[in-house]
Task: inverse folding
């Protein structure tokens, strides 16, 4: 697997950008920053663009997905776009009955709980991914020297939605299935791994300069279960993109005890949520892995002097790592003042790397 000669990583557009430099463990010209869920509900232009259009449809209209991806880059001067999509888009493209219900989240027409259910799942095809490739091409053409980060859900989080049929607080269904029917669980996570891997590869080949695997629910697992029942599928997902040469990032919430295992599935960068200071994360990872994170989203609504002090603490703690990309320790809350995010970016860029 190779990227085309006209790919932004290879034609001179993004290889030396602050984001890619930091992801690769170098010292960038300025401290790179982007926000998870930066293309989202806190921006009035986002709400206007999506007015009357469902979430999944918004992700699958290439022009709209590109516009939403670009909005926060224009507004905040962040150092990367994160591809606007949703974790269940690969399911939708494969033909699984799934929708995003306002106020609830992803809901499947029928949960996947038995070996027969897994065997009946449709397969994602390369042709079905064309709207994703087109959205990436449109986005990258506008981003210029700023990289686009590809988005994909990790197999455990995807499988958790499929087993529960809807969002869950404790993920009891998937945690039970991995022990009660390990063969069905392995087959389900392999399906999810291939769907996510193909989804991420389509983005990288179409022009994304890095890729991030989001394991939103991995924090519900202990280390032993993660290593035995989840890590092999995450590694399988990354096998689809490993040979492309684009930096790969792995992020989960509540995963302080899993950081080494998450790195060891084969990524270049580990995202750290707000629960663990970056200097401690760096210590746990042996001082060898670039980090991403980890401003606490709860502080975005605090008085500026408190938020500023916190951001400076994050920058100081991140300086211990061989590379540091500033981000939140989770997504942007919908009630966040967009002006505060712009001010945070300006602060980060004002501090010498």
Result:
């Amino acid at each position: 697997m190779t990227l085309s000669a006209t790919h932004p990583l290879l034609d001179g557009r993004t290889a030396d950008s602050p984001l890619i430099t930091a992801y690769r463990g170098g010292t960038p010209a300025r401290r790179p920053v982007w926000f998870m869920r930066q293309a989202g509900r806190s921006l009035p232009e986002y709400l206007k663009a999506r007015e009357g259009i469902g979430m999944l449809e918004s992700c699958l209209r290439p022009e709209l997905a590109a516009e939403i991806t670009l909005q926060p880059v224009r507004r905040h001067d962040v150092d990367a776009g994160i591809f606007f999509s949703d974790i269940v888009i690969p399911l939708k493209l494969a033909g699984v009955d799934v929708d995003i219900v306002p106020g609830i989240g992803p809901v499947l027409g029928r949960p996947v709980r038995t070996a027969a259910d897994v065997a009946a799942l449709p397969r994602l095809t390369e042709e079905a991914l064309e709207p994703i490739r087109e959205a990436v091409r449109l986005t990258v053409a506008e981003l210029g020297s700023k990289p686009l980060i590809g988005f994909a859900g990790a197999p455990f989080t995807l499988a958790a939605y499929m087993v529960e049929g809807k969002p869950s607080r404790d993920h009891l269904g998937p945690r039970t299935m991995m022990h009660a029917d390990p063969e069905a669980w392995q087959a389900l996570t392999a399906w999810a791994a291939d769907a996510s891997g193909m989804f991420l590869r389509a983005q990288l080949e179409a022009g994304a300069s890095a890729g991030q695997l989001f394991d939103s629910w991995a924090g519900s697992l202990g280390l032993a279960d993660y290593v035995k029942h989840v890590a092999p599928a995450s590694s399988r997902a990354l096998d689809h993109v490993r040979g492309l040469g684009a930096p790969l990032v792995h992020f989960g919430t509540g995963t302080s005890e899993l950081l080494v295992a998450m790195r060891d599935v084969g990524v270049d960068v580990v995202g750290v949520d707000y629960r663990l200071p970056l200097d401690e994360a760096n210590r746990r990872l042996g001082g060898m892995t670039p980090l991403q994170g980890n401003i606490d989203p709860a502080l975005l609504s605090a008085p500026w002097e408190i938020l500023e002090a916190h951001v400076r603490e994050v920058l100081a703690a991140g300086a211990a790592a061989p590379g540091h990309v500033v981000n939140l320790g989770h997504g942007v809350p919908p009630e966040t003042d967009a002006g505060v995010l712009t001010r945070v970016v300006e602060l980060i860029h004002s501090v010498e790397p």
Remarks:
- Residues 182-206 form the longest helix (25 residues).
